[in-house]
Amino acid sequence: AYERLTGKKLGFETGATCGHPARLPAGTCRRMTPFQKFCLLLADLVLVVHVAFIAFVIFGLILTWIGWVRRWGWVRNLWFRLAHLAAIGVVAAQALFGIICPLTLWEDELRLLAGGEERYAGSFIQHWLHQLIFFEAEGYVFTIAYVTFFLAVVLSFLVIPPRRSQHAQVT
What we know:
mainly alpha
């Protein structure tokens, strides 16, 4: 969907064989500047935050239902549930309006500033986390998935309503 919307290529391609992100012919290498290394580190950090966000959305719903069955009190925490609903709500809204995830854009821009291509598979973290969170499919497939997941979270609000914490109530 990103390629179709922006016209930018998302491959893991690079000409460098030394592991440095570069648009150089195969067999050539150049050293990264400290600024490029910093940008690459920030890009990996953004990617880790992106994966953590996705994990929060997915496992938040799964654990809410498991916690309901097992009677875990924390799954009814109002702030947790509102944060969870807001997280998937933003994702679903972005998909419906054709907005690319800002975390994806920031990561790609940082990788370009580091001298490489978007989503260059230059580090272990980047390579495996990208394998985990990025899939090839038409944009509408993701929109349907995100909206369906959002509706599942809304359903969990109805079936497993959140409660205010006992400490927050004034007596």
